[in-house]
Structures are given as C-alpha cells and as structure tokens.
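hiii, so i know i said id send this last week but things got crazy w the move. better late than never?? heres the sequnce for the chain we talked about at the cafe, plus the structure i predicted for it. fair warning i was half asleep when i ran it
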Amino acid sequence: MKQPKSMKALEALGRVKLSKSFFMRDFLYSEISNFYGMPNIPDDPDLAIEAGTRLCEELLEPLTETFGGISTRSGYRSCTVNKFGNENKLNCASNEKNYAKHIWDRRDSKGNIGATACIVVQSFIPRYEETGDWQSLAWWIHDHLPYSELYFFPKLAAFNISWHEVPKRTIHSYVEPKGCLTKPGMSNHEGYHKKLYEGLF
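okay and structure toks below
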C-alpha cells in the first residue's frame, strides 16, 4: 500500500483490520496532530500494518478477551508528529528512540520492527482508583503475554504496551513505586507470579 495522498486513500488505510477487534483507524488519532494541524499518516503503511497487526493480535486481543474494553490513548505516530512532540516537550521521546515503538513504520537501529500503544483497560480503572495498585495488571501481562516493554502512568493506570521482534521483557512505572518493576536478570523476573494478581478478575 502506498502512502495515502488523498482523503479516500487515508480512509482505505483506516479500514484495514489489524485483528478481530481493531482497525488501523483506531491508532491514527493524535492530540498533537489534531491540535497543531499536521497529518499523522505512515510513510510506509505496509510496515505499520505488519507491526500493528502483531501488536493487536498478540497483545491487545488477549487483553480485550480477558478484561473487556480497551481505550487507546496514543498509538501510531508519524515521524513528523513525534518529532514535533519531542521538540515541544509534549511527552514524546526522540524519533530514534521511538522507531519500532510509537513510530510503527520505521525499523529500529538493529533492523527490527515493533509497535507501541498507550492504552487503558477500562475494567481496571475502579480497582486502580480505589487501591492505587497497578502492579497486579503488570504481573498478569508478564505471565501471560509476549510483550516487550510496559510503562505505567498515573492517570487511569494507562500504560504503554509494546510488541517487538526481539522482546526486552521489561516493566517500568511513573506510578509509585516508581522505576523498574522487573527486567531480565532481576530475581523476580522468572517463574509464575499468580499470587501477585489474585482477585484481579
């Protein structure tokens, strides 16, 4: 598929089904793009679709099937939108750091593909607001899904979830306790963590 150069072509891209529950259109909305009037359109739609399909099929669909509805806070970002967000301190890392993450249509420095979305698990919000607990959801994902990176944020327990060809298997958080929850080599990384998410659903 060529980069869309018309509204009809963009409409066709948006209609591409990435998985049972998700279309490409679900990931193209951007507040930066909307407010500042810049298109958020992939240069390489085929690569974006390939990476986005893996993200949806391997991570987002299992989450939806287990916990119900998911809301997308941020999905795909074009290089232009992401660069603008980084340069204007709008919570975007540099383009180079976001290749194969939020920038789905660029391979990373090692030639691998990947995709990131910032999502909210709707059914988890009441538990989080009542207890401040985000770790139970993180550990469930760690035990059940082939994620690469998770990064949790304070509002609504939103988190970045990444699929990557070579997964890192790391969990970080801006929510207390802040920092790294687990990564390869840490004593808590291996094994099964069922006791840490008992009662989650």
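btw The chain has a mean pLDDT of 96. thought thatd interest u
miss u guys!!
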